[in-house]
């Protein structure tokens, strides 16, 4: 149990460190080659954007998954004793305002809305999905 959790945490930390090194390097390379950036289509995703998009979905999965242990524990005990309601209240306010900031920042032009929504989907799912799960926890 705890050894596999420890191994998972070490692997996750190494993955995050790797991404923190690789992604900025990709940004530097991309910024140095301005001509290829200008030729790139607005609808296509390059390696850096794709990596960010993948990280967004991975983040979304872990973020949503973070609430299930508490839900399971509450269900098994048939109690919410020991739950920090302030933590969940602040998390709910944070997720609500973050999700609303993404929605309110949506472009006015109808033609850009679908692309904006698609590019921000993992973060919208993460913020509003966790908000929904936090309602069950509380």
TrEMBL record:
The chain crosses the membrane at residues 7-29, 49-65, 85-104, 116-137. Gene3D superfamilies: 1.20.1280.290. It is found in: Membrane. GO terms for molecular function: L-lysine transmembrane transporter activity. It holds the Pfam family PQ-loop. It is a multi-pass membrane protein. GO terms for cellular component: lysosomal membrane. Keywords: Membrane, Transmembrane, Transmembrane helix. It comes from the Eukaryota. InterPro entries: LAAT-1, PQ-loop_rpt. Belongs to the laat-1 family. This is LAAT1 protein. It comes from Anseranas semipalmata.
């Amino acid at each position: 149990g705890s050894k596999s959790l420890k191994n998972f945490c070490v692997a996750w930390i190494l993955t995050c460190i790797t991404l923190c090194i690789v992604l900025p390097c990709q940004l530097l390379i991309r910024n140095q080659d301005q001509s290829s950036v200008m030729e790139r289509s607005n609808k296509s995703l390059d390696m850096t954007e794709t990596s960010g998009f993948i990280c967004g979905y991975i983040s979304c999965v872990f973020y949503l998954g973070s609430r299930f242990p508490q839900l399971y524990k509450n269900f098994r005990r048939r109690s919410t004793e020991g739950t920090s309601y302030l933590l969940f209240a602040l998390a709910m306010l944070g997720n609500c305002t973050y999700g609303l900031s993404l929605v309110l920042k949506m472009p006015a032009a109808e033609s850009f809305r679908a692309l904006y929504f698609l590019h921000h989907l993992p973060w919208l799912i993460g913020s509003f999905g966790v908000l929904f799960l936090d309602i069950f926890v509380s």
